[in-house]
Every structure is written in C-alpha cells, then in structure tokens.
Design goal:
single chain; mainly alpha; Arc Repressor Mutant, subunit A; Rna Polymerase Sigma Factor, Chain: A
Length: about 180
C-alpha cells in the first residue's frame, strides 16, 4: 500500500491528530493480524494494538521519516508484542499450556493442522518465531522484514530456513510452503 503524500505534509505542518487518525484507519486491521500472528491470542492482541497506537501517538511529533509510517508502526507493534511475551514468559510454555490457550480463544477455529503448526512454531527461538510468522503467514518480503526488524536480509533468510527445517522435522513433513 502506497502511503499518501498528504501524510508527510500533515506531519511537516504539525497536523498530528489528522495524521494519526489516518494511520489508525489505514493500518488497524493489518497491525492487529500482525500482532495476532505473534501472540496467538485475541485479548493480548487487542491490548498490544492499543498500546502500539498509544506509543505511536506519543512518538509521532518526533517521527523523522527515515522509514515509511507502516514500517514504523510495524516495528512498534512487533516490539510491544515481544515485550508482552517476555513479560508473561509465555514463550516458555510448559506442557499443556498451549492447548488451553488455543482452545480457550473463541476466535480460533480449532483446525488441528493449524494447531499443530502453532505448537511447532512455539518451540522455536524467539527470533526464528518472528521471522517465520512474518514470512509464512504474512508473506512479508525479506527486504521489508529487514527494515522492520533492523536485521540483514541474509540473516533473516537463514533464520527462516532454520525455522522451516525445524518445523518440517517436528511435523514430519517433506515440504512446508
């Protein structure tokens, strides 16, 4: 999605409220699903989305324009998501906790294959989880991911490859998308 030139003008002119409203309208759904792919819980995703927009609002006057607004918001949302995981220590799931979390979520459809995939992803190191989710579920190009995560394209490709291999082995698959 190409960002409108008017947003840069609004930022430059100090029309932060109008710009912020435009950003919220344009990116709420995409950010929600990005956060949800990291957290796998609706209630946490809603909270992190709100916190991400609060942080963006507070930082908007200092936005330098080194990246697109979308990339900037994605970075905020990703950092907030990972912070919540660290705080809750949910990425170190003990046996059975993931089953409860997925089945307790009214927005999860219970598809067994997806459940197994999410369980396999949860066993990966945090960085590999993030890279795998961005590439596999959101089909984000490595170049865009590089800007978002401030990591080289080569390192991201390697992380994805290792994550992909671990998941294939765990699920006894020959190939994964």
């Amino acid at each position: 999605m190409q960002e409108p030139e008017i947003w840069k003008i609004q930022l430059h002119n100090g029309s932060h409220q109008q710009l912020f409203n435009s950003l919220v309208e344009a990116y709420t759904e995409r950010l929600y699903w990005h956060i949800r792919s990291i957290l796998a819980r609706h209630d946490w995703s809603d909270d992190v989305l709100q916190e991400s927009f609060i942080k963006a609002w507070m930082a908007l006057p200092n936005f330098r324009g080194d990246s697109a607004f979308y990339t900037w918001l994605y970075r905020i949302a990703t950092n907030e998501s990972l912070s919540l995981l660290k705080k809750e220590r949910r990425f170190q799931l003990h046996e059975g906790a993931l089953d409860f979390k997925l089945e307790a979520d009214p927005y999860f459809n219970g598809d067994e294959a997806l459940k197994l995939l999410i369980e396999a992803i949860a066993t990966l190191p945090e960085k590999q989880q993030t890279v795998f989710k961005l590439k596999y579920f959101q089909e984000m190009p490595f170049k865009e991911m590089s800007a978002l995560l401030d990591t080289s394209v080569g390192a991201l490709k390697a992380s994805y490859h290792h994550a992909n291999e671990k998941i294939k082995n765990q699920l006894n698959l020959k190939e994964l998308k």
